[in-house]
Each structure stands twice: as structure tokens, then as C-alpha cells.
Amino acid sequence: MVSPFQVYRSTRSSDKQTYSFEDVVIQGLASDGGLFVPPEIPQVSQEVMFGKWAKLSFQDLQFEIMRLYVPQDEIPDADLKDIIARSYATFRSSDVTPVAKNVTGDKENLHVLELFHGPTYAFKDVALQFLGNLFEYFLQRTNKDLPPEQRKKITVVGATSGDTGSASIYGLRGKKDVSVFILYPTGRISPLQEEQMTVVPDKNVQTLSVQGTFDKCQDIVKAIFGDKEFNSRHNVGAVNSINWARILSQMTYYFYAYFQATSGKAEKLKFIVPSGNFGDMLAGYYAKKMGLPVEKLVIATNENDILDRFLKSGLYERSDEVASTFSPAMDILVSSNFERLLWYLALENLADGDTLKAGQIVNDWFQQLKTKGKFQVEKVIVENALKDFASDRVSNEETLATIKRIYEVSQKPQHYILDPHTAVGVTAAERLISSEKDASTHYVSLSTAHPAKFADAVNQALSSFDTYSFERDVLPEDLRKLSTMEKKIKLVDSADLKLIESIIDEESAKMGL
Ligand SMILES: *Cc1c(COP(=O)(O)O)cnc(C)c1O
């Protein structure tokens, strides 16, 4: 089947520019500042879904879904299958994303979708393992018959406050013609996080431990992207959460988890998703719009609650300051992928379905966000959003209380231990379950990290139990081993743009790629 979705466009396009899948993946962000979207969302019949898809493995399901968005003439079947197979062979679970059913006993129908079985124990592996292979695939095709000096190369530069850098590194390690530099603030990430990133021996990977704050690191990465001369020399790339291929690869687990929870039947089901940049949740929106019969998508935020406030008021307003919470991967001021949903909502609200007009509306909203820090949408837009979404906000105290409660009630066959991000989702899910009292609905709450990655919060919640031991109950063997492995750390004395650029120059030359 040839996909009809040959063209992607920007959410802010006031012109008619369209992009191929490859452009979209390599470029990440459109030149007008917008995000890439497929204008139409492919429809899948209930027959195909419950007759065929419900029986497929994660990988085969991923292939069927991607085939609808990635044209054959850009990636032939055999190549796409190979990329998918390699991307998920690195996962520790044969289901890739297994569902832990009824974690609190049989009555509640609360299931936990475990997205943390990839190499870095975080949900971002699902997307970044795939994206790394895709980068390499496109580059190798471009470079196929070129002499070494003409080969196209990409230098990926990113900053991390601790938990997200390692997923990028493990996605890109050892990839041909790609090098990766990840900046992090010296002494401000946990030892485990530092170990995960710095024990990677591949020569195309270099972490930079920078004297300064995370914000400084991030400012430098932005400045590097803005440095035209440096950029043209290094072909600087990003793998951040707005990359379309990340959203695309995350759709699969919504289908797969639905089939696992309902044993392949169409039943009432709600997903609850701990959200920050809205990439995870947006993939669920695509799944629902493709025809997966999901009753509701529930956005769970921590105290950084711009999404929850929007759904209650139609006002999208950035706070002055980011709150520092137990779920740091969700500590955001604005939710970058939310722009894609806003584009579909704007489009839906136009009688003529004119995609260019939708782009102008979104562009106008984001100009207001830039100048005034906020914009207000019409009531009908929020009403339409509420057909698919609900939202809840969860405090720090509630997050810890939930880790504790789930530990207590889930004693058979063993205690179930949540990471704090997952606990934000489970808090919202339990609130919903007790208000709805509907035993016929499945509630699938997404688990985005292994608890070992957030030891402080988990220990704070559980250390009062005599029976609890972090070392024994939480820490997996291969993370325990990290502390004994050799580390490759490059210390950088100051958060200075020119200094860091010169280090990247120097280290790139040493990599000899
Ligand atoms: C990135 C991340 C999230 C938030 O996902 P978004 O797609 O940004 O909404 C939640 N939990 C963890 C552990 C994460 O790393």
C-alpha cells in the first residue's frame, strides 16, 4: 500500500511549503519556527485493528503504523523492518513495552504501561533508539558513493539536567557519521545519571561536564545552534522531543497496550499520561484519531501545570519560573509539542479545512506567547479538546504519598514500586477511578521511568518501611555495575560559548569520523 501522506507541513506555514519524511526527521524544526505535521491522520478500520493488529508483536505493529506515515519510496519495507528490529532488540522485555495488569488488586482495573525497559531505563529510549537508527540510515544513503571528504556528517549537541541525556547518547552511540556532545552541569546531576552517560566507550560520544547551571548549558546549546559559521562546519543537529520521528515511534505502545489490557477486544479504556513536553501524550492523540477506541486521554501534570490550566480556561500562559519537583523530566514552562495539537484544533474549527489558515492562526498564537507570555483561544477550541482530553495536576506531596500507597497495597507477588513521574500519572488515575466507580473501564497509566533512576524521591517515600531496601528492591544489576566501570569525562572550566565550541572542534577531530 502506498501511503497518501507524502507531504508534511509546518504548524506555522503561511506558505505552501511541504516536506518529505527525511527532511522532517533531519531538520527537526521547520524554518518558520513551527513543528512538522502530517496534514491528514490516516484512518484504520476496526476490522484491521481488532482482526489483524491486535495479534501482532510490538515490532510488527510498529511497522504497520509507520507504513501509514512513511512513504515506501522514502524507506522500502525491508529497510523499515530492519530499522525497527534493530531499534527494539536493545530492550530487556520481549514485549518491548509490557503492561503490568491490575497492580493494586483485581477490582480497580488499574494497569501500568511500563515504558522503561530500554537501555537507559527511561521511556525516551522507545523513541531515541529508533531515531538514532533512522539518522544513520538516511546519512548512509546520502553518503553511499561519496569520497570520505564529501560525506555528510551530523554533530548532535544537547544539554541535560540529568535524566534525558543518556537516552540520546544510547540512541546515537556507534552510529556512522554522527557524533554526539552532551553538556551537563558539574556536580548537579546524580552519580547514577553521570555514570550512565560517561561509561559509554564509543568514540563518537563525548559528555562535557560544565562548571555552571543547567540553564547555562542550555543557553550554550542554543547559542551553538545560532552560530551560523560553526553550524555550517559541524552540521549541528538536535534530537529533542519535537522531532516527528519520536512522536511516530511512540504511537505503537498505545495500540499495543490497549490490546494487552483488553485481551484484544474493543472495551472502555482511558490512558493517563504524566506529561511535560507533551510528546508522549500527543502520540496517544494520533492513535485515538487513527481509530483506536480510547474513551479519554488524561493529561497528568506536576506543579508545572500549563496544560492543566489551559484545559480549564483556554488560556495558554507561561509561568515566570519553573517549579522544581520530584518529577524533573516534567519541569517545563511551555509544552513544546502542544503546538501540534493546537494546529489540529485550529484546523478542525475552520469550516473550509484550510491548512494554511490553521497555520496562520497558530503562528498568531505563538507570536502572542512570545511577546505577552500568553494567548487565549476561543471557547469552542477548548470544548473540542475536551472531547479527547481531560487533565489533572498533582503536587509533590501527592506524588510521594502515591509511591507509598501503591507499595503498601501491591504486595502480591511483590511490592510494586513507582518512580515519581509514574506516580504523578497514577495519582491522577486513582482520583479518576474513585470518582467514576466504573469497574468496566480499563485505566492504563503510563510508567515513564524505572524507580532506580530517581532514588531520592523513592527513598523518601519508602524508607519508613522496615521491609524496604533500595539496593535489593529497586536497583537493577546492570545499573549497580556502572559504578565499577571506567568513565570518560571531559571537564569544562566555565560555561563559555567559545571555549565549548573549541572543545567540540578539538574532540571532533580526535574522533576522526
Ligand atoms: C520526558 C519524560 C516525561 C515527559 O514526557 P513528555 O513527552 O515530555 O510529555 C515524563 N517522564 C519521564 C521520566 C521523562 O523522561
TrEMBL record:
InterPro entries per record: Ser/Thr_deHydtase_PyrdxlP-BS, Thr_synth_N, Thr_synth_N_sf, Thr_synthase-like, Threonine_Synthase, TrpB-like_PALP, TrpB-like_PALP_sf
EC number: 4.2.3.1
GO biological process, one term: threonine biosynthetic process
Modified residues (N6-(pyridoxal phosphate)lysine): 124
Ranges where the Threonine synthase N-terminal domain occurs: 8-88
Pathway(s) this gene product operates in, as recorded in its UniProt entry: Amino-acid biosynthesis; L-threonine biosynthesis; L-threonine from L-aspartate: step 5/5
Pfam families found in the cross-reference section: PALP, THR4_C, Thr_synth_N
Gene3D superfamilies: 3.40.50.1100, Threonine synthase, N-terminal domain
Reactions catalysed: O-phospho-L-homoserine + H2O = L-threonine + phosphate
Tryptophan synthase beta chain-like PALP domain span: 113-340
PANTHER family: THREONINE SYNTHASE FAMILY MEMBER, THREONINE SYNTHASE-LIKE 2
Database matches in NCBIfam families: thrC
Similarity annotation: Belongs to the threonine synthase family.
Summary of the function given for this chain in its UniProt record: Catalyzes the gamma-elimination of phosphate from L-phosphohomoserine and the beta-addition of water to produce L-threonine.
Protein name per Swiss-Prot or TrEMBL: Threonine synthase
The organism of origin for this protein: Zygosaccharomyces mellis
Lineage: Eukaryota, Fungi, Dikarya, Ascomycota, Saccharomycotina
